[in-house]
Amino acid sequence: MKVTIDNELAGKIALVTGGSKGTGKAIADRLLEAGATVISTARNKPEDQPDDIHFIAADLSKPDGTQQVIDEVLSTFGHLDILVNNMGGSETPGGGYAVLSDADWLSSLQTNLLAPVRLDRGFLPGMIRRGQGVIVHIASIQAKLPLYDATLPYAAAKAALVNYSKSLSNEVAPKGVRVLTVSPGWIMTTASSRMMERIAESADVTAEQAAQGVMAALGGIPVGRPAWPEEVAELVGFLVSPRAAYLTGTDFVIDGGTIPTI
């Protein structure tokens, strides 16, 4: 069979966390189009969940939730070839360090750092035994450009995820497993719209003014707009494919030119 973009992941089993909407859904759809058997997770099953994607309802911010996913994937499919740790987000209040409690910090760390760590720990032994596998961590440019007024714990957790991802790659690349990070800038999703609403409420401005404030805080987006989820998914689709076989240990920034340094 001739290998093309439409079938280059045929025979591969892929898990996308946070795969029911937004960027996660776009990534799951992209891997499915490339021929992979796709599993997605989220807290709740969406009404429009497609039948050709195996869905697992689980709360990955809790250790029991990650273990549930690991157990079901391995018992149902036997192994995992591709893990995309996409789940993440910020539910903490705006207002800077003073309004943040220990619970706010712990919630962000559980969701944005420890959930990927636990899933990696669950699936890496099988990947190492087979001498192959790909793990992608979806981080954020806030690891380098934190917004202290809005998402301080989220930015700190994503910075830790980038560092962890690089360290993990150094350990497991000699064993045949590639580990990569994708750091998007602002993506036009429902979650980003909710974040604008929270910032607006905290600052007593409109959502449109909040969005302009975020653009200004980021230094502007030279391309002139946020990314679409499908654009991030296309990058992930390439990175997990055989065409990217020599890529590991790298943080791929997709931000429309937002980060002002090289």
UniProtKB/TrEMBL annotation:
Entry-linked PROSITE patterns: ADH_SHORT
Assigned keywords, A-Z: Oxidoreductase
Keyword Oxidoreductase: yes
Keyword presence, Oxidoreductase: yes
Taxonomy, superkingdom: Bacteria
InterPro entries the UniProt entry points to: NAD(P)-bd_dom_sf (IPR036291), Sc_DH/Rdtase_CS (IPR020904), SDR_fam (IPR002347)
Alphabetized Gene3D superfamilies for the sequence: NAD(P)-binding Rossmann-like Domain
MF annotations from Gene Ontology: oxidoreductase activity, acting on the CH-OH group of donors, NAD or NADP as acceptor
Family that this chain belongs to: Belongs to the short-chain dehydrogenases/reductases (SDR) family.
Protein's recorded name: SDR family oxidoreductase
Organism: Spirosoma sordidisoli
